[in-house]
Amino acid sequence: MRTLIVTAAALSVWGCGARSAQMPAVNMRFYETPPQAAPVERINEKFTLNATLIGHARLRHQKPAELLNAAETASGGDPQLLMRAGRTLKPAPGVVLFATVRSAEVASGSAAGLALYEVALGCDPADVDQPGDLKNCAGYLMRVTRTWPAEVYEIDPASVTLSIIPEGGTTRGRLRASTVPGGFKADVEGEFTATIVDLAPSGAATATDASARP
Prior knowledge:
Structural class: mainly beta
C-alpha cells in the first residue's frame, strides 16, 4: 500500500516552536522510573502544539521498535530518519492526530540544545467535522535531539482520552495520555488546536485551512 510522508507546512518540525501562554497548551512530563524506587521527574514543560488532524489515514509505523529500525544506520541511528519515519502515513480508514513542538531546553541557566517532541496517535474512523471522542487511539511519543540516541515511547491505548470540537477547517481538542511503563515514562495532558487535513484515496493530502501555519 502506498505510504505518504506528511510534509504540509502545518507539520513543519524544526521551524516550529512554543508560542504564547494564551494559546492552548499541553503539559508534558518525563520521568525516570527505576525499579523499587520512586519516579524521578526529568522534564516538565508546557507547550503549544503544532497539530494536524488527518482523516482517512493510518500511521505507517505503530511501535517504537519499528521507528527505531527505520532510523537505524551503521553508526547507530539518524534523528532525521527517525522523524521521517514518525511522520509517515498510509491511506486507510482511520484518523491520525500528529503534533510537534520544538523546545530550546535549559540547563544551569543556559540553553542545553534543541529538542523536538512528536506525538502521533492513530484512531478508529470518525467524522472529524463532528464533535466527540476519538476511539481506540494508539501511537507514540518521541523526544528527538540533533544527536543520537532519541527517546521513543509507546503510548498506552488504555490511557488515551482524545476529544475534538471542529470549528470549520480547524478543531479544538483535548488530549490525555501516558506511555507504556518501563525504565522511563511520560505523561501528556492539555488542549490544542489542529488543522484538519484529509488524506484522499488517491494519496494526496489536502489541507482544509491553508492559512494555518506553525
